[in-house]
Design brief:
With about 130 residues, the protein is an alpha/beta fold. The protein is built from five helices and four strands; from the N terminus they run αααβαβαββ.
């Protein structure tokens, strides 16, 4: 198996993200600051669920919920979590404004109770 430079950088980012403090992420969602994260769902995810029946989805590290909201809008039962309190608050507010059902939690990936055979779709993107 060959590791590309891009894969290595993604792995390094993921490792760094595991040890970051929640406050580090919450600042990235400050409405007064320049936008750091994209607001549109990832096209690959949107295309991957076309024609699939909705089920239970988990969005790991959901941020402000761009992917979780897209899935919820397509009828998926979505649970998402993130370290960023402000990001989760924004996801909840967006879900409420759009009248979408979304379980959004502030949680660490090491502490979240994933369950076994619980999810039809797991989203883990950046």
């Amino acid at each position: 198996m060959t590791t590309t430079a891009n894969a290595v950088s993604v792995n390094l980012f993921c490792c760094a993200a595991l040890f970051a403090q929640p406050a580090t992420y919450s600042g990235a969602y400050d409405p007064a600051s320049p936008r750091v994260f994209r607001s549109m769902p990832i096209r690959l995810l949107v295309e991957a669920v076309v024609g699939r029946p909705p089920g239970d989805a988990l969005d790991v590290g959901m941020g402000s919920g761009r992917n979780a909201l897209a899935l919820a809008g397509r009828g998926w039962r979505v649970t998402g979590f993130d370290l960023a309190t402000e990001g989760v608050a924004q996801a909840k507010a967006a879900a409420a404004a759009r009248k979408l059902s979304l379980v959004a939690l502030v949680a660490d990936d090491a502490d979240f109770e994933y369950g076994e055979a619980k999810w039809d779709l797991v989203v883990l993107t950046y």
